[in-house]
Write a structure and sequence with these properties.
The complex is a heterodimer of chains A (about 280) and B (about 300). Chain A has about 280 residues and is mainly α. Chain A is about 75% helix and about 0% strand. The chains are: A mainly alpha (about 280), B mainly alpha (about 300). At the A-B interface, helix 1, helix 4, helix 5, helix 6 and helix 7 of A face helix 1, helix 4, helix 5, helix 6 and helix 7 of B.
Amino acid sequence: MLKKILRKWRSRLGLLMLAAVMAGPAVMVLIGSLMRREELRLSFGAVLPDGTGYAFLPLLPYYPTLANYRQLLLQTMEFYVMFWNSVLQTAGILLGQLAVGIPAAWAFAKWRARWKNGLFRVYVVLMMAPFQVLMVPEYLTLYRFRLIDTPYAVVLPAVFATLPVFILTRFFRAVPDELLEAARLDGASELSILAQTGIPLGKGGIGAVVILSFLEYWNGVEAPLAFLQNRVYWPVSLYLPSISEQEEGVALAASFLILIPAFLLFLAGRDWMEEGIANTGLKG
Amino acid sequence: MKQPYRKSRTKWRSIFRSRLWGFWMLLPSMAGTAAFHVLPMFQVLKQSVTDDRSGGFAGWEHYREVLDNGSFRLAAQNTVRFLGVCVPLLLALSLLGALLFYREKGDLRKTLALLPMAIPVASMARIWKVLFRRYGLLDRLFCGRTGGVDYIGSRWAFGVLVLTYIWRNVGYDIILWTAAVRSVNRELDEAAQVDGAGRAQRFVRIWLPHILPYAGVILLLSLLNAFKAFREVYLMAGEYPNKTIYLLQHIFNNWLLHYRFTDLCAGAVLVIGAVGILSVLFQRLLERDGESGGDE
């Protein structure tokens, strides 16, 4: 009896510790963003340039205030511009990836042609290549079309990333061929088969791509840093570190606001995300 | 009843009735991939062996310059060391996690482990400063009153980076390993248990052979994610971090900023070569698992 209770509490304690480590930083962002300047200085201030003493971990703000949010949203125009940049760039990438990737993945999964296997191999190699490798070729093409320093420099190369095609192909392959044969006998064109059978049955894959790509490009740092020198087009992820440490509260408020969309999408699409990740590693 | 398929009469749609329908569907993706990734790769190769002044053939000249470049060496060394330390560590930890959590489907613990992926790096970096800078929380915990270690700005930075990478990616890898662990033949395991096989013996004889075929792909995806750790470094420590975490991406950015294209091209070819060799090895592993675009 006692052993049972002990075991139960041990697993609860484990869960609590896991939650503290994994979710702790996000909670700290929220707490810090609700603090007054003086209070923030007192608790986090030690790491700031003119701070004294040690930082300590406050569990709750003594005098919660929305002052930081007010200042950020009413007095900082830059935040709106960069937040909107992030939204536009991420949305553009997602739409483009789906528009280009869905038909390509459908063809990889269902079209019978010899040479496409070789092509798929090229896609897998490109999928594995880190940004550092693809950056230089991308730069050359962007430079040729005079796209450097425009938002397209971030969006276009990402639209042709091959990871979404890979994930979608995995999901589309699970669509039974009999359905397609039946539709073909009805005289449907391959495009309408894709629209009316493939997409509804491959919803899981599309969901997985949307969420994985969103988390990837909402965090975009490498591509904007390499291709955008004009700060007007910077996404909010690059803007955030440039908020001065004197304004730590405002920076934390901004950190929390950019966390919200990612977190909501994560909550909504967690199962898709899990399935998408598992499908990347599973055998074909 | 399902709706009958609408017959399309427009001409451009008829290309999706021919045998080449797949080609047309692949075309936009192929064109973009060729334009942004495949074709300019040849130009990079050409640039890397061309003399910038005379335009003639320069042979290995640029490669030698890049390889002699102290910063490039440092960056390459750090990157290799980072990959060598963090990837095995992550694989081991997440396998352990998967073995602990694999049973339930919507496990809360798994969700918690995935959560860091949803926290934007920029938000995280802001809190990391409070945790790891001099007089930060960690400093307080370990050094009490006498301390004063800046974990981000000193040689400890490497440890912070490894920790960050594991924190962010452990959920992703747990999911991958969970898929592998679920493939273990339960009946076989139970039969072995009935026959009196111990835990360790069952793990080595039954579990490992089922799990290992997945290890190649998981290793690959972990490597891929490790290359993204530059984000964390940049947002945490800026353009010129402590020299233990100065990574390849830093020097590439630097070259780009100063328009040193020949160095950039030669460096890119070197990295492409290294990654290419790795990915050929992995392709072997993938294909052994029956992974390819084929439908036969």
